């Protein structure tokens, strides 16, 4: 590895990417990053603390879009590493799954081709437990990196399809055409933790919705939770460790039921959690509402299903130790309040 490596981090304005880029800059790396519109560069630099001094010289921004070839070769030029984090994340349920699948798959291949042609040696791609843990039926399941989502199962959500298709396409392409690329993935569960700006990940909306009372009662659903700082740290370790070719790492701090997340918010935030629901929503009512709402329909298929994601491989191979899920949940909540996204209770 060169003494001052240069890395391309795609999707520089993303939630995980921001934390990773700050870590890379602090370690002295030279960082190229992509944004869809360079008009966002000044705000991004300010957010990353790279708007003046030495850090300004460390960071370069390039315009590149997952759906178009322009800009990718320039962004990858001179880089020895690629962290591919850019991927579409929906605010709701798209009408057509291809709205997510095509940019996720084709964008990954564009980044990989540019990396290979630029002589990049190491690639870490952000995938998701969505590519591992779905399509296996209701009930309790435990998943490792050896598992894959079953896309032939009914009602696999479009986002889950997009992450699965994109990771498989990337692995197949690297095997066929990757040359010397050492490729691995990090597969996070639901990512929470500190929020630096009002432009944050859709995963944080779960905490926001609970705090704002937009979820009036709690359906019997759950998911793995991990802190964004730990996800960035796992990327960092995968970028630096030897023998990472074809590796796959689950990033999960633990499985949480939605009712447990709500309870943590009430315990830790007091009056600021006054709108957080306490009532458990009966399964039959969720199924009834699912007939009228695509968003509720996706939740109805999750009722009572617990997907435990085993992160012991990352612990064993990379020495990765995640924070407690409580810390990630509370960090999101406190920052949403501090940013004014969620209104705090006035103290007398």
3D structure, described in words:
There is one protein chain. By secondary structure, the chain is an alpha/beta fold. The chain has one domain: 3-Layer(aba) Sandwich (Rossmann fold), CATH 3.40.50. The chain contains 13 helices and twelve strands. Strand 8 (190-192), helix 7 (205-211) and strand 9 (222-227) form a beta-alpha-beta unit. Helix 9 packs across helix 13 (325-338) and helix 10 runs antiparallel to helix 11 (294-300). The protein is globular, with a radius of gyration of 20 Å.
| Alpha-beta classification | alpha/beta
* Proportion in β-strands: 15-25%
Most strands sheet: 7 strands, parallel
Order of helices and strands: EHEHHEHEHEEHEEHEHEEHHHEHH
**Bulk shape:** globular
Q: Could you report the average pLDDT, rounded to the nearest whole number? A: 93
Q: Could you name the CATH class?
A: Alpha Beta
Name the poorly predicted regions: none
Major sheet strand order = 3-2-1-4-5-7-10
Number of domain units: 1
CATH architecture: 3-Layer(aba) Sandwich
Number of distinct helices: 13
Distance between the termini: 57 Å
And the CATH topology?
Rossmann fold
Number of strands: 12
DSSP helix fraction: 40-55%
The radius of gyration is 20 Å
The H-level CATH homologous superfamily, spelled out, is NAD(P)-binding Rossmann-like Domain
Could you provide a short overview of the structure?
The chain is an alpha/beta fold and 348 residues long.
């Amino acid at each position: 590895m060169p003494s001052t490596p240069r890395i391309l981090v795609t999707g520089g304005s993303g939630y995980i990417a921001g934390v990773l880029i700050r870590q890379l800059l602090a370690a002295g790396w030279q960082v190229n990053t992509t944004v869809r519109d360079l008009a966002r560069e000044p705000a991004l630099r300010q957010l990353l603390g790279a708007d003046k001094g030495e850090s300004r010289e460390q960071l370069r921004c390039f315009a590149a879009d997952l759906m178009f070839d322009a800009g990718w070769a320039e962004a990858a030029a001179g880089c020895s590493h690629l962290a591919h984090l850019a991927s579409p994340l929906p605010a709701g349920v798209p009408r057509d799954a291809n709205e997510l699948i095509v940019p996720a798959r084709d964008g990954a291949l564009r980044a990989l081709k540019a990396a290979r042609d630029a002589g990049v040696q190491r690639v870490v791609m952000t995938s998701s437990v969505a590519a591992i843990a779905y399509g296996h039926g209701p009930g309790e399941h435990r998943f490792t990196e050896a598992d894959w989502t079953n896309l032939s199962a009914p009602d696999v959500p479009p986002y889950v399809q997009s992450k699965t298709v994109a990771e498989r396409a990337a692995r197949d392409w690297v095997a066929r055409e990757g040359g010397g690329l050492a490729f691995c993935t990090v597969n996070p569960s639901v990512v929470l933790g500190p929020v630096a700006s009002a432009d944050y990940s859709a995963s944080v909306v779960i905490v926001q919705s609970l705090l704002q009372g937009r979820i009036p009662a709690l359906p019997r659903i759950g998911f793995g939770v991990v802190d964004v700082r730990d996800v960035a740290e796992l990327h960092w370790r995968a970028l630096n460790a030897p023998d990472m070719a074809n590796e796959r790492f689950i990033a999960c701090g633990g499985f949480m039921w939605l009712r447990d997340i709500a309870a943590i918010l009430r315990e830790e935030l007091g009056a600021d959690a006054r709108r957080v629901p306490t009532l458990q929503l009966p399964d039959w009512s969720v199924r009834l509402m699912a007939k009228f709402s695509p968003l509720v329909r996706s939740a109805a298929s999750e009722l009572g299903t617990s997907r435990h994601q085993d992160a012991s491989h990352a612990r064993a191979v990379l020495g990765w130790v995640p924070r407690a899920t409580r810390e990630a949940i509370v960090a999101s909540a406190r920052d949403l309040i501090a940013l004014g996204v969620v209104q705090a209770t006035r103290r007398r």
